[in-house]
Amino acid sequence: MAKARRAQTGFLRLSSAGFELAASIIGFAALGYGFDRHYDTAPRGVLIGTGLGLVGGLYNLVKGALRATRKFDQETKT
Fold first, then answer.
1. pTM assigned to the model
2. Cα–Cα distance between 64 and 13 in angstroms, integer?
3. pLDDT tens by residue, 61-72
4. Half-sphere exposure of residue 3, counting CA atoms within 13 Å on the CB side?
5. How far apart are CA 8 and CA 44, in angstroms?
6. How many CB atoms lie within 10 A of CB 22?
């Protein structure tokens, strides 16, 4: 039972990381779209927003992966 629960929490962590990456890209692209509509600067705002969302989302994804790797290493050593 403990292995199944551990596998389930691992899957939930990975899926939430994927959703977080997608949400950051979509969110920043939407902000860029709103900026474009307000200031009539299309497509610069969408492109900059998408880039910022991608960089921020990937940063959080890598940070979470490193944290999970450290936690896994600590669990296997004990």
1. 0.81
2. 9
3. 999 888 888 888
4. 0
5. 41
6. 12
End-to-end CA distance of the chain: 20
Answer positive or negative: Cα dihedral of 62, 67, 74, 12. negative
| φ, ψ at 43 (rounded to 5°) | -100, 15
pLDDT digits (tens, 9 = 90+) for 9-31: 777 877 888 899 999 999 999 99
Distance CA 35, CA 43 (A): 10
Place of tokens 């998408």: 50
Is the dihedral angle over the CA atoms 29, 30, 33, 34 positive or is it negative? negative
How far apart are alpha carbons 30 and 26 in whole angstroms? 6
